[in-house]
Amino acid sequence: MVWDDRYLYIGFNARDTDVYATYKGRDVNCWEQDNFEVFVTVPGTTGYVEAEGSPAGAIWDGYYTNIYQGLQGSYNFTNLQIAAQILGSLNNSADQDIGFTSEMRLPFSDIYQGVPDGLPTNGTQLRLNLNRINWNTPFQLGGPGAARSDAYYAWSPQPGNGPNFHQPDKFGTVTLSTA
User: Fold this and answer.
1) What is the pTM of this model?
2) Which residue among 136, 163, 169, 177 is the one 20 to 30 A from 95 at the CA level?
């Protein structure tokens, strides 16, 4: 992660022997296929923002006023950028991939949601989590990953049985530094 006065930049390096992502465009269910996710709490609130990307360039973004209780209305980050590079062949389970790399640029204007003086400075702390969902290519392309092939990874693992990324009080803390 790096940052400047306008954006938080996050890079991912995902090992994956079968990279699967067919969804394209914005506001698609990225979590049903290989993806990477960033959750960041909105300072001074109980809410958080979420941005997801796929190796194929699909994007999903959302804003929650509290702990996740189902998808909440449409929300689009301003100037969110996501890019990925596949190290192998996309959607081809006949070969073995190395994985993919990706980058995400999150605007602080969306993280701070209008909080006065909502720009970070040296020493600013943000609560966030970085997640990865890994799916294997299904027999027929185009939908959710192959049944029971999913694996979930989190930088700050959440307690409980199964994946539960949506607990902002359990997110890790990152201190932004100019050093």
Assistant:
1) 0.90
2) 163
